Amino acid sequence: MKAPARRIGHAGAMDRPDPDPGGARLTPADLSVWAVLALALVFLVLGALFLAAPGAGALIYGIPEPEGAGRIALRAIGARDAGLALTLAGLAVFSTRRAVAIVLAASLAVPACDLALVAGSAAWWQVALHLASAFVLALVALWLARLPGPP
Fold first, then answer.
1. pTM given for the model
2. Residue 112 resides in a domain
3. Is 5 exposed, middle or buried (0-12, 13-18, 19+ CB in 10 A)?
4. Rounded to an integer, what distance in angstroms lies between the CA atom of residue 74 and that of residue 87?
5. What angle do CA 103, 117, 76 make, to 5 degrees?
6. What is the span of the domain harbouring residue 106?
7. Domain total for the chain?
8. Residue 88 domain-assigned (yes or no)
């Protein structure tokens, strides 16, 4: 007689409890989904601005508009912001609260580095935009991390 087949998972799957029981997937009924999608839209609009009008992007970012090849760096900022937007939107729609919270928290590196680059040379309102960006990312990440799991 043949032994029954066993389901094989990843190494150690049977040794650890599920850190996110129930999957804690985000659903359209969760206000947090819409908050993350709104953030994604803001980053997508910023990315499009940097890609389409690098001079306007430079003004918002807090650096003088470069000439020639320097404009490529501004477009790279736009591509970075658009990529972050698409990542956040994809995670909000197809992933868990925990995954979105981790990516949002890790994304704090973006405004932190931007702030370090412009501090001392940008106008107060440009610095404030980078600080506000960091604050909103941190706030939404903490909100998602602290939401109770599914019943």
1. 0.78
2. yes
3. exposed
4. 20
5. 60
6. 31-146
7. 1
8. yes
Contact 133, 111 (CB under 8 A): yes
Distance CA 32, CA 145 (A): 11
Q: What is the pLDDT of residue 14?
A: 53
pLDDT at 15: 54
Judge whether 135 lies within some domain.
Answer: yes
The Cα–Cα gap between 47 and 54 comes to: 10
What's the pLDDT at 98?
Answer: 92
Spatial separation of the C-alpha atoms in residues 81 and 42, rounded to whole Å = 9
- The C-alpha atoms of residue 31 and residue 28 are separated, in whole angstroms, by 7
How far apart (Å, rounded) are the C-alpha atoms in residues 26 and 3? 40
Residue 67 lies in a domain: yes
Residue 88 CB burial class (10 angstroms; 0-12, 13-18, ≥19):
buried
Q: Per-residue pLDDT tens, the chain, 151 aa: give them.
A: 666 555 555 555 555 555 554 457 888 888 889 999 999 999 999 999 999 999 999 999 999 988 888 889 999 999 999 999 999 999 999 999 999 999 999 999 999 999 999 998 999 999 999 999 999 999 999 999 886 655 4
Beta-ladder partners of 96: 25
Taking the CA atoms of 114, 47, 138 and 94 in sequence, report the sign of the dihedral they define.
Answer: negative
